[in-house]
Design a protein that fits this description.
Order of helices and strands: HEEHEEEEEEEEHHHH
Helix content: 25-40%
Strand content: 25-35%
CATH class of the largest domain: Mainly Beta
Number of domains: 2
Distance between the termini: 69 Å
CATH superfamily of the largest domain: Neurotransmitter-gated ion-channel ligand-binding domain
CATH topology of the largest domain: Acetylcholine Binding Protein, Chain: A
Number of helices: 6
Length: about 325
């Protein structure tokens, strides 16, 4: 008798583990705003809904966004649909984001809002995404960006810890997740001109020194030195807009080319001026002419190459 009861209990336990509760879940994104590169965050407003079996499942309290800084829930509606409970709520979430700035301002950003149930692991609860209902507002405008991809997926979040629960002998816990994935592509060309027009003008001012009479030493060397300070100031302004990164970005590359080009202008001017003072006028003209052409040619090619690579990425 006792063996029969244990047998049926074990079957029941196995069946309950083999068939976790399925929660149908979907989202409708209304806005993405307050994109902040420096603080590595953005804000999203959306509707979230879940359809589940009526049981001891409080989806409002148990639903968490692990990669959020803060979450606000409002306008919560609960209703019955047949033998299931339907919960829908409006949410506002400030999301953490590791921005990819290697190709800035020709960058693409990949947003991921991840939901999980804090009470039940994947053996007890799984998500099934509402592919048909999940979408974003077609009139949604993200200033300076285009939405090039939107999708929802389900997955798993693995916690490599037992959370101090050594009784079950579990070395890790796995929770089902529901994910909103959005790809943003920047409207870059207008921003690029705003950011770099000062740097390019500084370079052109430095190039003007090749037209200055070599007898006028002060403007001959003063122009590129002033241009160098202007280029450095331009870089500090752009860096103040971006998060700290150890990567060598497009911004770093373009400014480095400018710094090196201005140094070469000063270096070539010194050689040309030396030849002029020695009355080697033919040598002076060659150094001045071909040196200037070499600098502007190399500078243009490197800029086009690296900008093209950023666009291709």
């Amino acid at each position: 008798m006792h063996l029969s009861i244990l047998f049926f209990l074990s079957l029941f336990s196995f069946a309950s583990k083999a068939t976790p509760d399925t929660v149908k879940i979907g989202a409708y994104v209304m806005s993405i705003h307050d994109i902040n590169f420096r603080d590595k965050e953005y804000t999203m407003r959306f509707w979230l809904w879940m359809l589940h079996n009526k049981q001891n499942l409080d989806v409002i309290k148990q639903t968490e966004i692990p990669n959020a800084k803060s979450v606000e829930r409002s306008e919560i509606f609960i209703d019955s649909l047949g033998d299931k409970e339907w919960v829908i709520m409006k949410m506002k979430s400030v999301m953490k984001q590791s921005w990819k700035v290697n190709d800035y301002p020709f960058d693409k950003q990949y947003l991921n809002v991840q939901f999980e149930n804090t009470e039940y692991n994947k053996d007890e609860l799984v998500f099934k995404e509402d592919k048909t209902g999940s979408a974003y507002e077609k009139e949604l405008a993200v200033d300076g960006w285009n939405i090039t991809n939107f999708e929802t997926t389900t997955g798993e979040n693995v916690y490599e810890t037992s959370f101090g629960n050594d009784v079950d002998g579990e070395a890790s816990y796995i929770y089902a997740t529901f994910n909103i994935l959005i790809t943003l592509e920047r409207n870059a060309f207008g921003l690029f001109l705003k950011l770099f027009v000062g740097m390019y003008i500084a370079f052109l001012i430095a190039m003007v020194s090749f037209l200055v009479d070599p007898k006028d030493i002060e403007p001959r060397f003063g122009l590129p030195v002033g241009a160098l300070f202007a280029a450095v100031g331009n870089k500090y302004i752009i860096d103040s807009l971006l998060p700290e990164t150890s990567s060598f970005t497009l911004v770093d590359s373009l400014h480095t080319f400018t710094f090196v080009a201005i140094f070469l202008i000063i270096f070539i001017s010194a050689f040309a001026t030396s030849a002029f003072r020695k009355k080697q006028f033919g040598k002076y003209k060659k150094i001045n002419k071909y040196g200037g052409l070499a600098v502007i040619g190399l500078y243009t090619v490197l800029n086009l190459l690296f900008i093209g690579l950023a666009l291709w990425h």
